[in-house]
Every structure is written in structure tokens, then in C-alpha cells.
Amino acid sequence: MSSTAQSSSAWPTSGDAPRAGSEVRLSVEQVSYAYSANPSQAPLFTLEANSFQARPGEIVAILGPNASGKSTLLKLIAGALEPLSGRVLLDGFVTHTLAPRARAQRIAMVQQETPLLFPARAWEFVLQGRHPYGRTLRFESEADVLIARNALAQVGAEHLSDRWMSEISGGERQRVILSRALCQQPLLLLLDEPTLHLDIGAQVDLLATLRRLAAENRYTVVVVTHELNLAAEYADQVVLLQKGKSLRVGSPASVYQRDLLEEVFRTPLTVEQGSNGRPRVNLLPTS
Amino acid sequence: MLTDSTLRAAAALVLLCTGAAICAAQETPPAVQTPRAYRQVTDEIGRTIRVPQNIRRIVSLAPNLTETIYALGLQDRLVGDTDYCDFPPEAQLKAKVGGAINPSLEAIAALHPDLVLVTKNLNRLETVQALANIGIPSYATDPHTVDAIIASTERLADLLGAPETGTALGKDMERRIAAIRDRVAPLPLRSVLFVVWTDPLISIGKDTFIADALQHAGAVSVIDSSQNWPHINLEEVVRLQPEFLVFAESVDTAGHTTDTLAGLPGWRILDAVKHRRFAVISDAVNRPAPRIASAIEELARQLHPEAFADTPQSDKDNASPAPRSSTQPAKSSLHLDRDISVSQECACAR
Amino acid sequence: MRPITLQRLVLQCGILALILFAVVVVALKLGAVPVSLYGLGRDLISVLLRQTSQISSDYGMIVIDIRLPRILLAIVVGASLSVAGTSFQALLRNPLADPYVLGVSMGAALGAILALIAEPHLALPVWLAALFTPLGAFLGAAATIAAVYLLGRREGQIDSATLLLAGIISSSFLSAIIMFLLTTLAGRDFRGLVFWLMGDLSSPLQPSLRWVLGIGFLIATGAIYTTAADLNLLLAGEKEAMHLGVDVRRVRLVVYISASILTGLAVSVSGAIGYVGLLVPHVMRLLFGSDHRTLLPTAAFGGAIAVVIADTLARTVVAPSELPVGAMTALVGAPLFIYLLRRRIA
To answer: B304 lies in which domain range?
Structure first.
């Protein structure tokens, strides 16, 4: 079911004024973080005072050059790291203080994976997503199997169900990993550079799937990505980071200003408005 | 195909049998036997054991103890011994229970012994404990000197109800050893290295019965170690320059030792090797048993031939093939171009 | 899509239990002394039916008093080592891990040696003297577990790579101390220790220790089994596991302590039997899959079967002499390992 209604209506051009009538699900409030090699030394990296909000059905893209703190911000949102100050609220719960099980039932993370040590089939892999709902000594029930099958269907990967994970790669693999996240039946779906090893077609495919899922299942999706144009095309909000600071938060049109982008990414470019109201970035030759 | 009910039945059977076996194991009292009188005995390492007054069935777990039993004439009571009990040859015909270190508990139990004989030197404490667990007592011997071997033999005879035989055997051993002592006492002690093995070089410690036997033969071991089987550095031996190298027969045969040592680096600079001052004696020296007396005599003859020139070797109780008399100089002769003091009775270099 | 169900697990364990039963029956029959199992079986049944109060057949004592306790010990030791091996392979994310890789066996060996050295100098009551060596071994194992844990931490919690390094170093260090003691101590003959280092089931277990071993095994295995589903996820990646709701820190701690206790108990009573903890998990993975909810129980059965067979061979091939059971497991284990390598399970 397509629901591009949200994405094509007029955007607020500045700030993050809440839309009338929809409640805020994710609230990142003045979150900061620092880590250093050892406690007595000055911090190697700092993330400062980031704030934004997101609603069910929205896709937020976190953009920025390398080492700008994108992954760190994502981990803070996931509750995997404790912020130095500020907090992250998901439906009123502070994510960091949730117990691991409760957190896994609300937040699903898709990230760079470690290779599997022992061979596993795709359905086994996907079924792992039901772990947050299992009792200690329980085996998966028929309901769990149904949910897993459904998750695979939602990403169009049902035909991969019986294949070995080691045989699946690229876009198909990403879809299987995504369906594991869907099994968690989360409120918040976080993805860390999901398009890294994918070809262009697969990249577009993935983002389109995310948008569809966000609309159908009312997920809030936060994606860390390098891909400026993909983010512009599919995100409802963009957070632009540089060296740990969020320079701007807002709709793609409001954030993609040429001077700003050139300064952050240090390369000449132009920004033009696309036919559907979304900005498009063109890189210029540097010579 | 296996159904649930089949599985459950099988599981029940398994549990039932296991349970029965365990219960039975705990209920088994000792086999019903005619009542016997028992007594408490303390063995040579201080353990107190409970043995029948009349010990009828013995298993020996050490070759020297098997020999001793035969020497005492009590071999009819020996119902089993180890694979290595080879002296006297009849001992080979007894039922075997395995090695000294790793005997089969079952094989010993199947023989229903009243007593098992062990030595601290050769056998493992675990074996003794395992036997105690199934109600079989073990008697341990641990002689460190020749006198202790004699005393041990007499105690064993006493334990087995034949004290007179024991005393007689003991006296005989004492007499022979005293005779040897008289002959070699006036002569200077020969410094020797007793070689248990050449590679690695292993000798004997000062607390072993072999070291004591050496003394009775008019020799002294150059190695002064409190370990029983010390590993020795060849350099140390070169520094100590023993007058003689002493080997047990099996060691010599195994490595053609006396023939090849002259060609080996390190060994060949030893005076004893250069002048072929070897003494090869029977394997009896390795066992603390009555034959130790023959071994001592053999050694004394080779180290101090001048003291024995007038007496032929007495071979009362050995089965070794080659008689060790002074008509066989090849292996044991002294090449007297060194300043070894020799008494006038020397009739060597024949 | 055929996920594991309880019925399938029970079926698999049932088959393995039957195989174990058959192996035990054969093991009871074989040995240095020939035994009629038919007569023994009749006696067992009559005891069960309370018709007689004791085993009357002449060789019953050999089977019940000597072989059966030994077989039961082999079962518990084999199961302990396999479960520990499976757990360490998951904990350390390393298919080459075995129960001894973290130094527990060397620690136990050192503890046993120190107990052997100290015993003559202490006036111990009889009941304690018999337990002294296994007790020393277990204390040595426990000390090693604690030391390696402290060394293997990073930022306060267990880190797989650091733990593995700490374990290997500790193992080497303890081994060097053991070599030193064995060669320099005056007047001691540690002949029995060679058997122990190879793994030896011929020393029967003191009755009081039987309960300790059995209960310890059940508790430790149970604790590990509660983390079985978590271990599956841990193997897919630590970060992923955390995001899927696994309390990684707690799971690591529980598995480390429980698997080390299993190893310590097994080694204290039977020495370091090799290859079982390494290979049985791989074979069971080939047969039943890598899901730890089935792998742990099937590995336990598999280990029990393997050690009973190895021990039976050890006491029959050169009867009446006995080989240490570790020699048998090595003889079979090494070629099997090569075969598995070629199948690239690692």
C-alpha cells in the first residue's frame, strides 16, 4: 500500500514544530556523550546537545561526514550507551534504563554484522528476532513461526527462507536481516549505514521498503547514511551532524542548503529542487 | 517409527535398570564365607590393615616381592602376579593381573586374594586405595637399605606365618654379605657411578637400597642426591671422575653400552670409559629381594678382584646365563696402567 | 521452516539415551574377567523384585562394585566435558576451544600435586586423607578459574579474546610450574600423576564425592541450559545479541563459571581426558544442528557415550593391563578431528 500522502504535503521550513494531531514517539533531548581512552584524559570524541523528535510512520535520516558521531548518536537512541547529559525518550520510557528484554521488544537495530560462526539457515536467523518474547526455556511457538514467515514476506524474501545465510549476499541479505528486526515487532527501527555494500538498485529498493514498512506498521525509522540523495528522497526529517554537533534538523528541503552542505562535506556541489519537491544534490568536479 | 509411548517405555526401562544396579551396588555385602580370624597388621609405610590370621591367597604386584615369596618357599600361596614377574621362571606361569603401575582391578578381584603385596617404589597409591574400596587389603614394603631388605623379608615371612623360614633366609643373606664385607673392608672404596640409564643419564639417590648395596660391595656412589632417580648432568660426572661405571645387565644389552660408550662425546673423556673400567652385574641389583646378595657379591668381585682371587663364585640362586668368574676379563678387567692401588694378591690381567 | 520443538528434542535425546544404554550393557560385559550378563541380569531382576537381598553370582561383585561405578563415572565425566566444551566454544566464539583452554586442567593438576606433597606432613583423619587429592585438584581448578577471570576482563566484563589469551598464558605458566615440581622434588614418585595427566578412570570415586559430582553436574549443566537460547544469539554477534535482548554480561558470567566448574569437577576425579570436549560438540552439530537448546543435551549424551566406549577399550585392548583412557580418546580423536576439518565445519 502506498502512502506517500505524508511525504508530499507541505513541509515546515524551519525547526521541528510538531504536526498537529500526531503524538511524538521518539524524543531526543539535549543528548551529549563523550568517550576517552582513559578517564583521566581529555575526551577523544564528544557529541553535543542533540535534539529532535520523531513520530510513528516517520523516517529520520542522520547525515554527516565520517567521524561526525552518527553511529554514536544511533547507539544513544538505541539505549546501548548512556548519555552524559540529556535523555532519549521512547513513548515516555528513557531508553537507556529499559531492561535488555524490554528494550529489545521496542527497539530493533540493523547494523554492520559480524560473520556467523556456525552455518545457519535464513529462517533460523530470522527467528532469532523472536528472542525478546521467549521465556527462558521455551522453544519457538507456531505463532512465532508465523510472525517470522510474515516478516520475510513483508520484505519480499520468502523464497530465501531455506537457504544458508552464507549463500545470501548483498541486497537479499540485507532484507533477511531487516526481517529479523521486524520479528521484534518494534516501535523504533534503527539502521546503521544499511546501504553500504549494496548496488544502487538494491539501495533504492531498501529505502522504498523502509518507507512502506514505516507507513504500514507505524514504525519510527532512524537511518544513518552517507547517501545524500537517497536521504533526501525518502526521509521525512534529516539531522545533519558535523564533529559531534547537529548543525541543523528539519525537512530535507530546509537542511539541504548549498553553503551548509559544502562546508560540512568539503566538496563543491549544487542543490536543486526536484520535481516532487525534494532537493537533489549534484557534485561538481573539483579541478 | 519411534512413538512417544515407545520412548517413554524405553526411558522407564533405562531408569529402572540403572536404579536397580545402583541399589544393588550399595547393598552388596562381602561374599558369604566361612568365618575366619582376623588381625591388625602395620605395614612398612605405617598403614594399618586387617588381614586374615591365615593368609592363603596372595597377589604380588611387584617383581621383587614375587621373588621373595619364591625364596621363602611360599609360592603355593601366590595366586597371581604382574606381567613383569619373571624370576624365577616358574613365576611366569602364575595368573597375570597386568602391569605394576596399571594392573587390572577386576583381574585381581577375580582371584579373591586375602592380601596384595605392593611396594612404595613401584606401585601407585591409587591402586592400593582402589583395592581397599573393594575390601582387599594391601601390604606395602619400602626398604631403603640392604639391612632393611633382610628385615622386610623376615617380616613378610612372619606375616605369612612362616617365621622360621624367614629367619633362616635372613641369616643366610647376612652371612653372605658379611663374608663379602670382610673381604673388601681393608680395601679402599671404589668410587662408582651406577648408571640406571644413559640417555637421559639417570643414576641413583643416596637413600636407595642400591646405594646401600654399593657400599656393601666396597664401593661408593659419586652421586649424592636426595631424589631417588636423579637426572645427572654428564659434565658433573666428568668432574667427579668415578673409577668405575656400573651397569645392570639389561641396560648394557639394551644399548650395547659398554661397547659404544668409548665413541660417544662426553663419555669418552671419562677415565672409566677410556680404560674400560666397567662392572656389569645381573639385574638382581634392581630388585630389593634375596638375590641382592648375589648382586653385591658379583659387584664386589668385579671391583675388587684381588680380594676374591682364591674363591670361585657361589651361584646358589641365580639363573643368569653367563657365569661371572675372573676367567672372563673382557667386560670387567682392569687395565692397570693407572695408579690404582692393588693388593698383592692381584692375579688379574690374565 | 522446521524450528525445534520439545517433541523433537525428546526424541533425539531418547535415541541417544538408548544408544547409551546399549553401550553401558556392552561395557558391563567386557573386561579383563569374563562375565555372564544373563546370570547377572537374572540376579538384578530378582533383587528388584525383592526375592533375594544380594547379588549371588560370583562375578556380580566385579560388575557391580568395579565396573558399574566406573561406567557411571565415565558417563558423568564425558557429559561434563562435552557440555563444558560446547559452552566454551560459544563463549569464546572459537570452534577450537576445549574445556582445558582456559587453564583449568593445569590448575587442577597443580592442586593435586601440592596435595600429594602436603599430605604426608599433615595428620589427617582417614576420611579426609582419601579425599585430599581430589579436593586439592578442585581447589587448584577454582583458583585458576578466579585468576583467569580477573585477567580476562576488559572494562569490567569478560571479553572473549582477552579471556582466551589469559587462559592460554595461565595454562602454560602452570604447566611450567608442574614440570619444575615433578623434576626437582626429592624422593617423590609422581608416577601416578602421568596417568592422571592423560586421563584415568581406574581410580574409583569415594562415595561421598559421588554425590558432589552428580549434584554439581546437574546444577552447572542446568545453569548453562538456561542460557542456551542466548548462546545462539551470542554466536551471531555480541552487539546483535545485545540488541536482541540478551544480557550479555550475565550470560557470559554464568556460562564461564558453570562450564569451568564442570571442567574442574571432571578433571579432579579423572584427570585431563582429551578430545572429548573438543570434538563431541562438533559431531553433534553435524548430526543435530547448532541450536544450543538441542546441542547441549545431545552433546552431554554424546560425551557420555564416547567416554564409556573409550574407557571400555582402555581396559580391554591390552588386558589385563590398562591404558589411560586419555590415550584412547587421543587415538580416536585425532583422526576424527582431521576428518571434521576436511569437512570444514570450523
So the answer is: 189-332
By CA distance, what is A148's nearest residue in C?
A: C1
List residues of A whose CB lies inside 8 A of any C CB: 78, 80, 100-101, 103-105, 107-109, 111, 113-114, 116-120, 123-125, 127-129, 131-132, 134, 136-140, 144-145, 148-149, 161-162, 184
| List of chain A residues with pLDDT < 70 | 1-22, 37, 39, 44, 49, 287
On whether both A112 and A180 belong to a single domain, the answer is yes
Is C186 within 8 Å of B227 when comparing Cβ atoms? yes
What are the pLDDT digits (tens) for C35-61?
Answer: 777 777 776 677 667 665 555 556 667
**C95-108 as b/e: b if 16+ CB within 10 A:** bebbbbbbbbbbbb
| Closest B-chain CA to C126 | B47
Closest chain C CA to residue B229: C187
Beta-carbon separation of C47 and B205 below 8 A: no
Q: Do C240 and A113 touch (CB under 8 A)?
A: yes
Query: CATH number for the domain including A96?
Result: 3.40.50.300
Question: Is the same domain home to A115 and A222?
Answer: no
Which residues on A lie below 8 Å from C228 (Cβ)?
137
Element containing residue B23 per DSSP (H, E): helix B4-27
Number of domains composing chain C: 1
Segments of chain C scoring below 50 in pLDDT: 346
Report the predicted TM-score, pTM, of the whole model to 2 decimal places: 0.81
Q: How far is CA C321 from CA A178, B235, C196, in A?
A: 62, 39, 16
Cβ distance C323 to B29 less than 8 Å, yes or no, reads: no
| Nine cell digits for residue C328 | 584412547
Q: Give the pLDDT confidence of B330-344 residue by residue, as tens digits.
A: 433 333 333 333 333
Rama region for A79: left / alpha / beta (φ>0; ψ in -120 to 50; rest): left
In a domain, A146, yes or no: yes
Chains B, A in contact, 3 or more Cβ pairs below 8 Å: no
Nearest to C232 among A119, A128, A137 (CB): A128
Percentage of chain B lying above the pLDDT 90 cut: 40
Q: What pLDDT does residue C346 have?
A: 47
Residue B132 shares a structural domain with residue B203: no
Residue C264 lies in a domain: yes
Q: What is the CATH number of the domain that holds C285?
A: 1.10.3470.10
Sole residue written with cell 678387567: B333
Note whether residue C1 is domain-resident. Answer: no
Q: CA of C233, closest CA in chain A: separation in Å?
A: 7
Q: Which domain holds residue A136?
A: 108-185
* pLDDT bracket for residue B328 (50, 70, 90): very low
The answer to the question of residue B297 being in a domain is: yes
CA distance linking residue A268 with residue A287, whole number of Å: 10
- DSSP labels for B49-117? EEEESS---EEE-SHHHHHHHHHTT-GGGEEEE-TT--SSGGGGGSEE-B-SSSB-HHHHHHT--SEEE
pLDDT band at B320 (very low <50, low <70, confident <90, very high): very low
Which residue among B103, B121, B125 sits closest to C320, beta carbon to beta carbon? B103
Cross-chain Cβ contact C245/A113 below 8 Å: no
DSSP C223: H
Q: What is the CATH number of the domain that holds B195?
A: 3.40.50.1980
Residues A178 and A203 in one domain: no
Chain A closest CA to C250's CA: distance in Å? 11
Q: Alpha-carbon distance C239 to C243, whole Å? A: 6
What share of chain C has pLDDT > 70, as a percent?
Answer: 90
Kindly determine whether residue C1 and residue A149, on different chains, have CB atoms separated by under 8 Å. Answer: yes
Mean pLDDT of B129-140: 89
Domain count within chain A: 2
Amino acid at A5: A
- Alpha-carbon gap: A47 to the closest alpha carbon of chain C (Å): 21
